[in-house]
Amino acid sequence: MSLLSWELEAEAPVGRGMTARRFRLSNGLGLIAAVDKRAPIVALQTWFRVGSRHERPGATGMAHLFEHLMFGQTESLPPGEFDRLVERTGGESNAATWVDWTYYKLSLPARDLALGIKLEAERMQHLVLEHDPVESERDVVTNERRERVEDDVDGWLDEQLMAHAFTEHPYRWPTIGWMEDIRALALPDIRAFYRTWYAPNNATIVCVGDFDETELRELISQYYGHIPAAPTPTIAKQVEPEQNRERIVRAPKPIATDRLLVGYKAPGQDDPDWAALEIVSTLLAGCPSARLYRKLVIEQEAASSVDAQLTPFRDPSLLRLAITTARGHSADEVIASVDRELAALIENPPQAAEVEKAKALAETDFWSALADVDGKAEALGHYETALGDFRRLTSLAERLTAVTTADVAHAVRKFLVPTARTIVIAEPEAETAESDDDDGDD
Amino acid sequence: MKVIVEPSPDTPLVWFDIAIHGGASADPLGVEGLHRHAALLARRGAGTRKRAELDETLDSLGAALDVSVSRDSIGLSGVALSRHLDAVIDLAADILAAPRFDEDEHARLLRETPQVLDEIRDDDSALATRWFDWLCCPGHPYGRTSLGTEASLAQIGVLQRDGARALWKREVVPENMIIGLAGDVDEANAARLVQRLIERLPPGTATPLATNLSTPAPGRRVILVDKSDRTQAQLRIGHLATRYGQPDTAALAIAEAIFGGMFSSRLMQEIRVKRGWSYGAGCALRRSRLPHWFEIWTAAAIDVAGSAVALTLELYAEYADKGPTDDEVDFARSYLIGAMPFHVATARQRMQLAVRDALFELPAGYTARLPEALGQLTAAEVRAACARQFHPDNTVTVAVTTAEQARRGLEAANAGPITIVRHDEY
After folding, report:
1. Beta bridge partners of B77
2. pTM
3. Which of A90, A377, A385, B26 has its CB 3.0 to 4.6 Å from that of B339, i.e. a possible disulfide?
4. Domains identified in chain B and CATH numbers
5. CA of A136 to nearest chain B CA: how many angstroms apart?
6. What gap in Å lies between CA A201 and CA A228, rounded to an integer?
7. Nearest CB to A107: which of B64, B273, B342?
8. pLDDT, one tens digit for every residue, chain B (426 residues)
9. A5 C-beta neighbours (distance < 10 Å), count
């Protein structure tokens, strides 16, 4: 395969003194390359445009199961050999799955880049999916779920919030999958999922670090050039019906005080309102001087922690408030305070200085995310895979810089609507609640 | 005072870390949590700025300035856009030299800290670590909780603000500090900023650091931390180990990697890959100034918790007795030497590593030079270090789980007598 098969599609600066360039091989494989020679290492990541949103009800957790299976046996690598080859170099391998994507991450000494490319190409096309290794990884995933959801109140809250905030969209099921689905995933379906989604035309390789770009493309041509493209299913646009009534879920848990997640319907990351809502998120609970943090944690002492997150999903998702109530205070009391603060925010929109504060914090966050080669690769991979263009990384930063007080006021009025929110509350089990009341009176 | 500077223009950011010798291991007995209380209080108002104004000023600069308390130090860490660096350093200097220790913040912090205890008790992994730290080697300075207990927090209340104020005056002196800067700052500018950080501090001597170590009790024992409705057991198994920086350090780095420091390690293969009992399993020698723990961790499904403990102890006993094979040593050596560039890839990483070495009173560049020592070790030397430093017959096992379901399995695990405690009693 010659270099002539590559097409340069886009290039843009990423950070100081670094340019990222996107190429495409004739079989559809994308490559984003960014040379950074400040350390003799490379971040080699393979991003697939498949996440939990591409699953179907009854077979949830499939995309995440692959995050495990992909480290197993291939036609030329016996079980465990993938990890041994990587670890012998001093490198590390990992993977992550979320709603819009799955990616496989290799951090390698620069001299071992060719090994990494060879290994990734091998498991993209020659993964062995047999009964015993699948069952072994199924057990591991069920234990991962116990640790992260069944025995973790924050994991449970997160899962329940999405399950109740969405009634139609695939964001309603958890990326790790429902336990009964994980246990029931059938081997023929697992093999079909692999054949469908693990193809070069559904992937982007992101390489950041100390390498020669021409040599990189030669290596990728050598190991991937012969892999045929595969037809990928067309996924119909999934639209979540408008929510016009507040939803509240409660359950007892072995915890000391109420914990709650509040999710307001929010736009997808590429929406024009996303940047303004990101600023709102910071102003509410994204820094020590944020409005809700000051009110609930410092002034009222009604909560011990408040965090806000605008989820960076392709489709409309949620602006989430995560609150742990303080001893002697209840979720209902905290929700009433949140409502009063949001009403005040609508009535008295933030002035320029407050918006500029959030923008300064966003600038620091932007650069912090690009502080090392892994962070740069992850940022490029996310925007390329979730939003279709790695250049969104910088254009979104520019949109944040351009947000005005009017934009913020508009976003608050449009999205922070009680009838379009879902609340999940974990409450102390009866015996624990009584004991906590005693503590609170001390 | 030691100063470490790692210039790099990669981003328009500057990170700084200030480590002040002392930390939780220097808390007075019965007043555990005092260092944390003093540090958090110092961050809640300094110079002319009360807490709200200090927070507002820092946020408006896009900066972060956080305090932390480890076993060995108080830390003041910041990140700033380089165009605002002078202003942020001045705020950090205020915190060091002129903390207000306001009464209202003192009282508020005393009300808040028990709720951090609640958060830990709600988190099984954090709870297992808290209990293990306390009971691994009773009386050891690292057994003192940095957060405190309900009883020790009451003592901090009795001391009033004077306790925090006296600690700060005694320990926050240049001779007791290590200052690191990394990022978009050159050497000359860094020297100027360091001077601004310390110019208002009083002179003083370095704090005498804890050296008295308790001796662990012989034998095995189990602490079963009872919590309702668990589907798993969060497990910690270990004992007091040697100090990071001792002659066996390089050999133990290899031994640690083989037993539980890689995905290919024995623990991960036996517990996760072969049996599917847990999402993960590993081990670590805690790196600190004094001898600290050797700790094995995993989280097994509740029905196999006892089997997981039994297997782990069998594997550990075999490993301590026979040590690794020649091939395992070669593999781990290759892994550790190859991994070093990832630990020193950025200016911030290099600065933080150097600050840590200085805090542990190690020669400059000690950790970055470990690969040289790794390259010279023989497999026989690693096996000898395992025999010297690993003590499988003297382990403490902490299991956070539901006692009614897990007890029988743990009794059969040959892990020692079981003490059952309520999850919220410490």
Report:
1. B17, B66
2. 0.94
3. A90
4. 2-198 (3.30.830.10), 221-422 (3.30.830.10)
5. 6
6. 8
7. B342
8. 999 999 999 999 999 999 999 999 999 999 999 999 999 999 999 999 999 999 999 999 999 999 999 999 999 999 999 999 999 999 999 999 999 999 999 999 999 999 999 999 999 999 999 999 999 999 999 999 999 999 999 999 998 899 999 999 999 999 999 999 999 999 999 999 999 999 999 988 887 777 767 788 899 999 999 999 999 999 999 999 999 999 999 999 999 999 999 999 999 999 999 999 999 999 999 999 999 999 999 999 999 999 999 999 999 999 999 999 999 999 999 999 999 999 999 999 999 999 999 999 999 999 999 999 999 999 999 999 999 999 999 999 999 999 999 999 999 999 999 999 999 999
9. 15
Q: Among A191, A224, A257, which residue terminates a domain?
A: A224
Query: Domain range holding A219?
Result: 3-224
- Which chain B residues have a beta carbon less than 8 Å from that of A257? 115, 118
In a domain, A231, yes or no: no
Record: contact B11-A363, CB cut-off 8 A: no
* Residue A358 and residue A256 in one domain: yes
Pair of tokens at residue A333:
């009391």
Which residue of the set A67, A120, A159, A378 is catalytic?
Answer: A67
User: Would the CB atoms of A364 and B108 count as touching at under 8 Å?
Assistant: no
Q: Which helix (H) or strand (E) element contains residue A260?
A: strand A259-266
Cβ atoms A96, A51 nearer than 8 A: no
8 Å CB contact of A90 and B335: yes
In a domain, A238, yes or no: no
Angle at the Cα of B127 from the Cα atoms of B123 and B133, rounded to 5 degrees: 155
Please list every residue in chain B whose beta carbon sits closer than 8 Å to the beta carbon of residue A89.
Answer: 334-335, 338
Q: Are residues A395 and A432 in the same domain?
A: yes
Strand order in the sheet with A247-253: A247-253, A421-428, A259-266, A317-325, A303-310
* ipTM of the shown complex: 0.93
CA distance B273 to chain A (A): 7
- The amino acid at A103: Y
Q: Is residue A234 part of a domain?
A: no
